[in-house]
Design a protein that fits this description.
Residues 659-710 form the FYVE-type domain. Keywords: Hydrolase, Lipid metabolism, Membrane, Metal-binding, Zinc, Zinc-finger. It is an enzyme of class 3 (hydrolase). This protein has 744 residues and is α+β, with helices and mostly antiparallel strands. The protein contains 26 helices and 18 strands. The strands form five sheets. The protein has a seven-stranded antiparallel sheet with strand order 4-3-2-1-7-6-5, covered by helices on one side. A hairpin with a 4-residue loop joins strand 6 and strand 7 (91-96). The two termini are 57 Å apart. It binds zinc ion (2 copies). One zinc ion binds next to loops.
Length: 744
């Protein structure tokens, strides 16, 4: 069961679509247990299809813009089945008792898909308050400057500022210093869709990746300007006298294109060129392959053989390997052979985008950070015009034959790399799944349109929210706890050797909503859970230490006063004198080491006898005198102690949030720092200051606990208005003494 994209939604702020707004007695069959049926109600709103199971207290929310297909299946004795599949691999079959209801629901669902770009979800989406319609500007120039461009070999060209030369390229492009306008115009006319060779990545050793589309060479056509442009690219790199042209298509496809006046470079016309095919199949083959994967995932109780054979015959991992192999070849050519590489496929916006972005990711550690990865996507996928609208089928009018999982394959190859190098990437699996989801959801404007110019025409930056802003605001949810920025893999070029056995099937992506077959524990998630829990306990421990220090100081003062009165007596027995009160206190109460092990998160063998010899550092003395001004009452201390959960519910359980939404592998489970239970993002408040924490930081707390904390806080504030510190200190002392009495 799935709940998804429910941020800030409730039934109340969505408009119901169906007349009576619901279809009752709908049956859903559990795919992994044929005998288990759930009976519930379907609600249809302007944004979601919602299935509510009142007995199991579960809700399934499906965003309309994520629906891939809604198919009416042949009527059975039980009713009329309607199968809904989403673009993020959720599949559900509703059995609706009355055929009329099923027909109506089916027709309505098909109508709800946006008929044009202007009707897409991003223009309706009301984000939570913490998100603003602010677009952190992505400046292509900044990213090139980071790579040291322009320089003596490369210059910036604004001849595409009105998208005249190539309407799917960015307004500014980077080309060799020695090129002329004539060369660029000539080359763009000789390349499919005007996509001439331009710089996309410059390695510190001077070798570069340039990208373009296929030449319109046919069987024998040639273009002098294009040949000159390639020679200029070759000359930018003094380390090598030759360069590669990588055609990422299978040879047969490239040859077939010649008949249509397209094709590939003739080595006889381009001197010092090494031409090579790195065969990756086309969008149609990839679409078919993914469908076979999904069919395998949807099989009902398959045998081991059936399941593995079905996955194998999809050839999906073979295609993933082909993309990765091409990227590794390019990275090796750049880093080891120090040669320039020009990459193209047919139009240079699918396989070329995959290979250029993945080879850059292997070559440059910066792209393995969250910020750098964003830059990589902005540059290779958004600026250079991957057709997100067509490939993801954003609108009702999209051509089915144009849809293809090209971006998904890129995301999956990145995931495969994170499995090979778990410490090299700053982001986690959840980030990759989220990225894929939102390339389809149209919740944010980033992945709408087919190129930069489309997004400009659609006014996405003025009228929609940015996905990157959402990531930035929730960045802790997307961090890989295993990331070690200084480790070798995180700071150097990655050149893995990929064997067939290296690649894994991505269960958390394709079986993500099949909670019952996924592993019960996920190591990175469990680690994040432990890190958070340790942080909460450390913070709480620091407060407890502070309270103990205060208590000790009070007791010292009490002792001091006692000593005063006793030393004033003429016949006092013993050696105590006025000059040694602190030593006396130390004998009674050993001082705690302030630079505690709690801060480092390491449990050392605590040995009280060792610690007694350690004097508090000077700054501590200062701190103590500051802290002592703020002594709380015993009630307040009890309140502090109760505001922190010492035990947290373990990460793997439960499968549902208390609000009835199911958890899936892409969703972060949050532990409430006060009660320790698991909650989904909509049940958690992030902005609560817990009295049991030493630091003033904001903690995640469930809504019930947040209410309770807030009302208790206001009660404390009202009951102790402007008490002097002396008063507070006296109260604490008296409270303590009362406590002692109680103990006795
Ligand atoms: Zn709670
Ligand atoms: Zn919840």
């Amino acid at each position: 069961m799935v709940a998804y994209f429910w941020f800030n939604f409730s039934y109340n702020n969505e408009i119901r679509i169906l007349d009576d707004a619901k279809v009752q007695n709908v049956r859903v069959v559990d795919r992994f247990n044929n005998r288990q049926h759930i009976i519930g109600t379907i609600y249809l709103t302007d944004k979601h299809l919602i299935f509510v199971d009142p007995e199991g207290k579960r809700e399934t929310w499906i965003l309309h813009s994520l629906i891939l297909s809604a198919d009416k299946l042949p009527t059975t004795q039980q009713g009329c089945p309607l199968r809904v599949r989403t673009k993020h691999f959720f599949s559900i079959e509703f059995i609706i008792p009355k055929e009329r209801d099923c027909v109506e629901l089916h027709a309505t669902l098909n109508q709800l898909k946006a008929e044009s770009h202007e009707k897409l979800y991003c223009y309706l989406y009301q984000a939570p308050n913490y998100l603003e319609k602010i677009w952190d500007p992505f400046l292509l120039a900044t990213e090139y400057m980071r790579m040291g461009v322009p320089n003596r070999d490369w210059k910036v060209e604004d001849s595409n500022s009105n998208f005249d030369m190539c309407d799917t390229y960015p307004p500014i492009i980077y080309v060799p210093m020695s090129t002329t306008k004539q060369m660029l115009i000539g080359s763009s006319k000789f390349r499919s869709r005007g996509r001439l060779p331009v710089l996309t990545y410059l390695h510190p050793n001077g070798a570069s990746i340039t990208r373009c589309s296929q030449p319109l060479s046919g069987f024998s056509a040639r273009c002098l300007e294009d040949e000159q442009l390639l020679q200029s690219i070759l000359k930018t790199n003094s380390h090598s006298s030759t360069m590669y042209i990588i055609d990422t298509r299978p040879r047969i496809n490239a040859v077939a294109n010649r008949a249509a006046g397209k094709g590939y470079e003739n080595e006889d016309y381009y001197s010092n060129i090494q031409f090579k095919f790195c065969p990756i199949e086309n969008i149609h083959v990839m679409r078919g392959s993914l469908q076979k994967v999904l069919d395998a995932c949807e099989m009902k109780n398959p045998s081991m053989n059936q399941y593995l054979n079905a996955l194998d015959s999809s050839s999906w991992l073979q295609h993933i390997k082909a993309v990765l192999d091409a990227a590794i070849f390019i990275a090796r050519a750049i880093d080891i052979e120090k040669k320039n590489v020009l990459v193209h496929c047919s139009d240079g916006w699918d396989r070329t985008a995959q290979c250029c972005s993945l080879s850059s990711l292997l070559l440059c550690p910066y792209y393995r950070s969250i910020h750098g990865f964003r830059m990589l996507i902005e540059k290779e996928w958004l600026s250079f015009g991957h057709k997100f609208s067509d490939r993801c089928g954003h609108t009702r009018t999209s051509d089915n034959k144009e849809q293809s999982p090209v971006f998904l394959q890129f995301v999956e190859v990145v995931w495969q790399l994170t499995q090979i190098y778990p410490t090299a990437f700053e982001f986690n699996e959840r980030f990759l799944i989220s990225l894929h989801d939102h390339s389809h959801s149209c919740q944010y404007g980033n992945f709408v349109g087919n190129c930069e110019k489309d997004r400009l025409d659609l006014g996405v930056k003025e009228r929609t929210y940015s996905y990157w802003n959402y990531i930035l605001q929730n960045v802790n949810d997307f961090k890989n706890p295993l990331f070690r920025p200084q480790s070798t893999y995180a700071s150097e070029v990655l050149l893995p050797t990929i064997h067939s056995q290296t690649l894994k099937f991505w269960m958390n992506m394709y079986h993500r909503f099949d909670g019952s077959i996924l592993p019960k524990e996920n190591i990175p998630n469990t680690l994040t859970h432990l890190i958070d829990h340790t942080a909460a306990l450390n913070d709480h421990a620091r407060l407890l230490e502070k309270r103990i220090r205060e208590l000790r100081t009070i007791l010292e003062n009490v002792n001091e006063q006692t000593n005063h009165s006793t030393t004033s007596l003429p016949e006092q027995d013993g050696n105590l004198s006025e000059t040694e009160p602190s030593q006396t206190a130390n004998k009674n109460l050993p001082p705690l080491s302030l630079s505690s092990d709690v801060e480092s998160g390491i449990n050392s063998d605590y040995s009280p006898s060792d610690r007694t010899s350690v004097s508090p550092p000077l700054n501590l003395q200062h701190q103590l005198s500051g802290e002592i001004n703020d002594i709380p009452t015993i009630e307040r201390i009890a309140f502090e102690l109760n505001s922190i959960a010492l035990d947290w519910r373990s990460y793997q359980a439960p499968l549902h949030c208390t609000c009835s939404l199911p958890f899936d592998s892409a969703q972060r489970k949050y532990n409430c720092w006060r009660c320790g239970e698991n909650f989904c993002i909509r049940c958690i408040e992030h902005g609560v200051r817990l009295p049991g924490l030493y630091s003033n930081s904001l903690a995640p707390v469930c809504k019930t606990c947040a209410r309770s904390i807030k009302s208790s806080l206001s009660m404390f504030e009202n009951s102790t208005p402007n008490k002097s510190n002396d008063q507070k200190q006296t109260e604490m002392k008296s409270s303590l003494s009362i406590n002692d009495e109680n103990k006795i």
